[in-house]
Amino acid sequence: MFKAVLFDVDGVLINSPPVHIASWHLILEPFGVRINEREIHLFEGRKALPVLQSILAQNGVTADQEVLDEAIRQKRAYFQSHMKPGLTESALLAVRQLRELGVLVSAVSGSTKANLHKMILPDQQLLFTAIFGAEDYEHSKPHPEPYLKACERLNLTPSECLVVENAPLGIESAKSAGIVVVALLSTLPREDLGGADYYISSLSELPLLVKGVFESKK
């Protein structure tokens, strides 16, 4: 039975996608590149620098590493200055209910630790057994390393964990790690989130789903 729920952060625990989208538009404008919201959501889970390199390459744009590094610095600065911190109401309630069920909760994100500590308020961070950011692993999602590292740090096997994701790269990462996945339909439609084991429209549905799985395995 599940002993831990591993949450993606952006668009799952935190309503951060609008700020991320604005920050991407900000740094891509000097390169003469524009992408739509769906494209940004499909990239979610990867580290920012390889995402920027991929976007520019697809649009035939080249840039020196110094320029790329400065663009990422500007993106992070914009995000940290514009992001309103705190878990969404449904996320906070779900995390507390899972804790009451005796389930560990952790966050596994492609964001930097600085951004994560900006997004999740200090008192809310205490609800999490661990918070994993981009610095905690070498290969970002869709590689399985982020979730495998999280399982290892929690001293749990992948079969003892459940992942909540809202992006295809995150789903691929978790499935490749051998973990059951719940897809949250917060930013993308179901047809973009194939491969998940369960689908929910709100995190308010998650505790009942987890409890139901517990009961079905008794």
List the helices and strands and how they pair.
Blueprint: E1 4-7, H1 17-28, H2 37-43, H3 48-58, H4 65-82, H5 89-100, E2 104-108, H6 113-119, H7 122-125, E3 130-132, H8 145-153, E4 161-165, H9 168-176, E5 180-184, E6 198-200, H10 206-216
Parallel strand pairs: 1-2, 1-4, 2-3, 4-5, 5-6
Helix pairs in contact: 1-4
Elements, N to C (H/E): EHHHHHEHHEHEHEEH
Give the % helix.
Answer: 40-55%
Stretches with pLDDT under 50, minimum 5 residues: none
Give me the count of strands: 6
Overview in brief:
This protein has 218 residues and is α/β, with parallel strands linked by helices. 46% of the residues lie in helices and 11% in strands.
Q: What does this molecule look like?
A:
There is one protein chain. With about 220 residues, this protein is an alpha/beta fold. It has 2 domains: about 5-15 and about 85-215, 3-Layer(aba) Sandwich (Rossmann fold), CATH 3.40.50; about 15-80, DNA polymerase, domain 1 (Orthogonal Bundle), CATH 1.10.150.240. The protein contains 10 helices and 6 strands; from the N terminus they run E-H-H-H-H-H-E-H-H-E-H-E-H-E-E-H. The chain has helices at about 15-30, 35-45, 50-60, 65-80, 90-100, 115-120, 120-125, 145-155, 170-175, 205-215; strands spanning about 5, 105-110, 130, 160-165, 180-185, 200. A 6-stranded parallel sheet has the order 3-2-1-4-5-6. Strand 4, helix 9 (about 170-175) and strand 5 (about 180-185) form a beta-alpha-beta unit. Helix 1 runs antiparallel to helix 4. The radius of gyration is 17 Å and the shape is globular. The protein starts with a strand and ends with a helix. The model has no long low-confidence stretch (mean pLDDT about 95).
